[in-house]
Amino acid sequence: MISISAERIKKAFPFCSSDNEHRFYLRGVCIEPHESGTGAWVISTNGHVLLAQHDKTAKLPADMKSVIFNVADKGFRSAVVKVARPRKSGRVEVSDLKILTVLEDRIGSEAVLVYTAASPALIEAPYPDWRQILPSVSKLKPGLGRAFNPHYLWLLDSLSLNKHNAVKFFNNGDPKSAVVAFSYGDEHAFALIMPLAADGETVIPRVYPRKLKKVQKADPAQKPKPRKLRKQTKR
């Protein structure tokens, strides 16, 4: 049996592809063992931006390599969102019968079955080796470093635990390399933004003022001169 945190699956939803027929496996969420031996990687990508999460609570079969959860079912997604809310401990599980289920843990009692997906639980296809696009951690420096699609910024909201968490960007100076995004709210996840295929020379817009007027600062030691009143002339 495979058991994954519903909160991690919920965060993965926005990063999955929804309309890529040729790379249909990107419509799912990849689950694979974590190299630390504890928990699992939860990977989702649409081919342009990727979210990698470490679910330390995951339970996997000892001989499992990787699987792709089929998360296309709308009822399944709604059930995951429902049990992934604060103060709830939901789980997404795949049994030996390859059935995808959503469970809600309740204190003092057994987990309650919330939803059973009608579609096949797994996508039978190999998942891309996402580690190949990881920039070397020793070369990462703060900053975006290049042009990117701003549409992907709103997806990074999945990295934050609440609206007060900040996201910081890093790059390794290579314009062909992905940009890494870390969140101060979730230390067990990071995102990658792929470089744009057509990234021309960055040009400052013509409308941007080239010469800015310098504002003279008042000297605190110098007292302001009193203004002279003009004499009114009789007409």
Notes on the protein architecture:
The chain is mainly beta. The chain has 2 domains: 1-133, DNA Polymerase III, Chain A, domain 2 (Roll); 135-198, no CATH class. Helix content is 7%, strand content 25%. It has an 8-stranded antiparallel beta sheet with strand order 5-2-3-4-12-11-10-9, covered by helices on one side. Strands 1-6-7-8 form a 4-stranded antiparallel beta sheet. A hairpin with a 7-residue loop joins strand 10 (167-171) and strand 11. The chain starts with a strand and ends in a 42-residue tail after the last strand.
> What structural class should be given to the helix and strand makeup?
mainly beta
Q: How confident overall, as mean pLDDT?
A: 83
CATH level-four homologous superfamily name of the largest domain: DNA Polymerase III, subunit A, domain 2
Instruction: Please outline the major beta sheet.
Output: 8 strands, antiparallel
> Low-confidence segments, ≥5 residues, pLDDT <50?
none
Task: Characterize this entry briefly.
The chain is mainly beta and 235 residues long. Helix content is 7%, strand content 25%. The longest helix has 10 residues, at 74-83.
Q: Which descriptors would you attach to this protein?
A:
235 residues; mainly beta; DNA Polymerase III, Chain A, domain 2; 2 domains; eight-stranded antiparallel sheet; four-stranded antiparallel sheet
